[in-house]
Amino acid sequence: MKKKEIKLFIIKKIFHNKYFFISLFFLIWMSFFDTNSLLLHWKFKKNIEKMILYRDFLKKKISLEVNHLKKINTDYKYLEKLAREKFYMKKDNEDLFIIFEKNR
Known about the structure:
Blueprint (H helix, E strand, L loop, with lengths): L2 H13 L2 H16 L4 H37 L1 H12 L17
């Protein structure tokens, strides 16, 4: 027998095997149609990565806010500056003028 004939014989033997078809069906089913399919695992993994990035962003934001809160609680001048700039507060003996610039 020639090499091509041997290869064809092996291929025919494999494709006529019922276990091959059952295994192929099982792989296709598990990859696409099952409730725990590979596609769903891939989507969940991408979702988890996005959630981890968002969690890290929130942790950084929380740490910045904690530092800001510590600074407000310890530094009276910073607290007064913040109250004057953000909330337009003033002392009893002061007048407050707010000037808005027109956007051109």
